[in-house]
């Protein structure tokens, strides 16, 4: 079964990895600017998101996604859970990843803050009760920052509702193939963005990664929530393009 994906433009390859609150549509504000800047952009839906249903056999997201790029080198731009996947790809294929831009990235094993635990508990309760509309609204309130407008909130609402449709509460836990990887194999130059209005976990992760990755810079956006590329693309796109061009 093939992942849903799109390739646009010509030039050095850039791979866009979406947040697990969203799907590949979250990058709609970035693709035209990246293409105009001279990049070939690949974006896909992970299994259980957007147009990629969960398969009937075990899979590994990183393995499937890297196949989309063939043998070419590429830069990675990842948001939240997509940032964590970007870290895995950069760690497992260090010779392929030319640059790594992480927006409010997750990190496996990082201790969850009381705020994040409270969110998870409330979401689980709503999903278990079958109130997926309320669970969707909880995600929009939690993850979309104050700089976003109604259009951006509605986009996240639609994408998150699609996640619940593809991964209903009565579905057995999908089986993914876990591959061990370590941060110390990452060699790519890294840009880390965090949002002042996000949960504290993600700033802590950015600060930690900036201290352990070999060539990393952390920028905190004082206006941003968890999804800055959606909230204010006119401010984020120049940061990404300048970083990718420099590499």
From TrEMBL:
Keywords assigned: Hydrolase
GO molecular function, one term: hydrolase activity
InterPro entries per record: AB_hydrolase_1 (IPR000073), AB_hydrolase_fold (IPR029058), AB_hydrolase_sf (IPR050266)
Keyword Phosphoprotein: no
GO annotation, cellular component aspect: membrane
Signal peptide annotation: none
Domain AB hydrolase-1, chain residue ranges per copy: 14-237
Hydrolase as UniProt keyword: yes
Record PANTHER family: AB HYDROLASE SUPERFAMILY PROTEIN YCLE, MONOACYLGLYCEROL LIPASE
This protein's name: Alpha/beta hydrolase
Native species: Actinoplanes awajinensis subsp. mycoplanecinus
The organism's taxonomic lineage, starting at the top: Bacteria, Bacillati, Actinomycetota, Actinomycetes, Micromonosporales
């Amino acid at each position: 079964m093939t992942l849903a994906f799109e390739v646009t433009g010509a030039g050095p390859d850039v791979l866009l990895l979406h947040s697990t609150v969203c799907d590949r549509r979250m990058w709609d504000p970035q693709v035209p600017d990246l293409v105009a800047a001279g990049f070939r952009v690949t974006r896909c839906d992970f299994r259980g998101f957007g147009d990629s249903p969960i398969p009937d056999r075990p899979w590994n997201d990183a393995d499937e996604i890297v196949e989309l790029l063939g043998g070419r080198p590429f830069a990675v731009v990842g948001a939240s859970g997509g940032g964590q996947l970007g870290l895995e790809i950069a760690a497992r294929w260090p010779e392929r990843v030319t640059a790594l831009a992480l927006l409010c990235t997750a990190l496996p094993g990082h201790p969850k803050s009381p705020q994040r635990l409270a969110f998870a508990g409330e979401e689980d309760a709503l999903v278990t009760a079958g109130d997926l509309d309320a669970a969707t609204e909880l995600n929009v309130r939690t993850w979309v920052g104050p700089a976003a407008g109604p259009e951006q909130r509605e986009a996240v609402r639609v994408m998150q509702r699609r996640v619940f449709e593809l991964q209903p509460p009565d579905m057995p836990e999908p089986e993914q193939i876990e591959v061990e990887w370590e941060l110390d194999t990452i060699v790519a130059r890294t840009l880390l963005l965090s949002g002042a209005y996000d949960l504290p976990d993600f700033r802590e992760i950015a600060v930690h990664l900036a201290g352990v990755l070999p060539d990393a810079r952390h920028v905190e956006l004082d206006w941003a929530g968890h999804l800055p590329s959606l909230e204010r693309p006119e401010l984020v796109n120049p940061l990404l393009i300048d970083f990718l061009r420099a590499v």
